[in-house]
Amino acid sequence: MFGMPERANYSLFVELRDASGKNRALFVNPYTGEVLGSADQANHFANRVHRFHTHLLVGEFADEITGWSAIFLLVLSITGIVLWWPRKLFRLPLDFRRGQGSAKRFNFELHNLAGVASSVFLFIFAWTAMCIHWEREVGKLAQEMSPTQTPHAASPEIPAPGSVPLSPDRLVQIAHTTLPEARITGIQLPESPKQAATIGLKFPEDHTPAGRSRIRIDAYSGKVLQVQSSRDMSVAEKYARMWNRELHTGDIFNLPTRILAAFFSLMLPILAITGPLIWWNRRRASKPYDAALVSRALAVNMGKET
Description:
Elements: E1 2-3, E2 12-17, E3 23-28, E4 35-38, H1 45-55, H2 60-84, H3 103-133, H4 135-145, H5 168-178, E5 183-188, E6 197-202, E7 213-217, E8 224-228, H6 235-249, H7 255-265, H8 267-305
Antiparallel strand pairs: 1-2, 1-5, 2-3, 3-4, 5-6, 6-7, 7-8
Helix pairs in contact: 2-3, 3-4, 3-6, 3-8, 4-6
């Protein structure tokens, strides 16, 4: 597999499989062919953060936790507005350091302000996360809603004995001819003559990392077996395969929406801290009142007994 560089000064990603079936990933200079290093030696911090975000670094069980957590966040974003609506508190927290309010009041108003200001974004984050978690089911639903179905890829012809597969350069030329306005993001070579070569492509308006367009080519004859262009998708398929992820990451309108997504993502930990503090403060405040009720009830009962 080849991962094409996004920029001129980026390296080429190459993944190879040896005879034992073990994969080895390398970074290669796309101009000289020099091996720059192994992917095992690279800094995987960002990948680990992404895996923690999606799978909690555990696996399928944790993946289910993240999916249902998205449903929980969706419910919170709706019920939070329902609770906020009667009072419609939308003001900056009081400056309790100057005697204008207490720390409890500051925490309460900060929770209200952060909640109502970010509710729409949290709803979008939760909804899109649910669609990502159940991406296969959402994709099937989008196909059913589409007026035309995407044709299945034809099978490659079995080559004659001694035939040599086409070079990656030739496959790239065929893909460029088929979708000239798209940029190639990856090349998946077949492991056997019965499989097709898959070329990943990305149009300028597609803001997903590797693009959502695919071309499958017979690696020996060069015949195009299937073309999946993001520009030919129905609206439902575009949402399921492109727009949903772009909304979730904030990539839909490039830098401005990425900044908004990053900012309102920070509201979630604020709400996660201020919410339990509000509950704790109310719980503490109710204890003396409950004790007084208990004492009064005991006194009344004792008076009746005497």
